[in-house]
Amino acid sequence: MSVKPKVFITRRIPDAGLHLIKESTDAEVWAGQLPPPAAVLRQKVADCDGLVSLLTDAIDAAFLDKAPRLKVVSNFAVGFNNIDVKACTERGICVGNTPGVLTDATADMAFALLITAARRIVEGHEYTLAGKWKTWEPLGHLGQDLTGRTLGVVGMGRIGYALARRCRGGWHMKVLYHDVYKNEKAEQELGATQVDLDTLLRESDFVSLHTDLNEKTRGLIGTEQLKKMKKSAVLINTARGPLVDPKALSAALRDGTIFAAGLDVTDPEPIAANDPLLKLANVVIAPHIASATVQTRDQMAEICAKNLIAGLRGEPLPAWVNPEAAGKRRQ
Ligand code: DGY
Fold this sequence. Notes:
Layout: E1 6-9, H1 15-24, E2 26-29, H2 38-45, E3 50-53, H3 61-65, E4 72-75, H4 85-90, E5 94-96, H5 103-118, H6 121-129, E6 150-154, H7 158-171, E7 174-178, H8 184-190, E8 193-194, H9 197-203, E9 206-209, H10 223-228, E10 234-237, H11 246-255, E11 260-263, E12 283-285, H12 294-313
Parallel strand pairs: 1-2, 1-3, 3-4, 4-5, 6-7, 6-9, 7-8, 9-10, 10-11, 11-12
This protein binds (2R)-2,3-dihydroxypropanoic acid.
């Protein structure tokens, strides 16, 4: 009887993937609700062949040096800024992620935040709960229209495109985008126009961030960028918290530099209980739940499992972040 590869899974993931992993590996699942502490994770992975990680697990070179047998890191997320991919490649370790399946759920969340922040829905809800609703107010609760306005997408990849499609098709918005790549499909199908970041910030009514977090994009939106936006503008972030300077954002929201913000991601995560953003009425914050639907998380678990198993078998990963590792994979 051949020995099954040893795998550590840093949190319970949906059964759709867990069952597949358990069928072909000797898997241990971290049962805690919080991530395993770094020292525990290092010790768990010391003799593992495979790892299923979450965006809350930092996988860096020092960590990898303590995992001499590791062949594959399968991240249960499309983003992989928690992983030092270069360090994995240098060591012949494959990295997988979960693109595609969470596109619609995330675009839906971006749109939900956009309309919620623009129409001040949470403020209205809290006002009602507090018993402050005394009459219909001609000048009360005024928000921003959506129809025919301009959407600025920063990072016109799959999710940016899916949001733009919703806003163009349903709300007839004009679409601007900023990206290093030209997106022909967005230009042809949505009439989107590629512009520099300053133009996008100046001309958009809604600015939605969909770019990767890396050293070039960290702090992409700070005081200067917020000042370029319209006073009536709404900023949406469903990508990664550190794309936005949180202090600059709370100052801009407090001072009326921009109208409102809708965030599914913060810096840090979770947001500190005393963060000034939490004191503002014109920001809506969700706890990083854009991909949190039953169907999407099942599909993420399935891809994650398939990446892990392919990595262990020496096969190409279905969603392979570092195919350049192919020539030097660990046996
Ligand atoms: C991702 O997949 O990168 C999201 O942030 C969580 O689903």
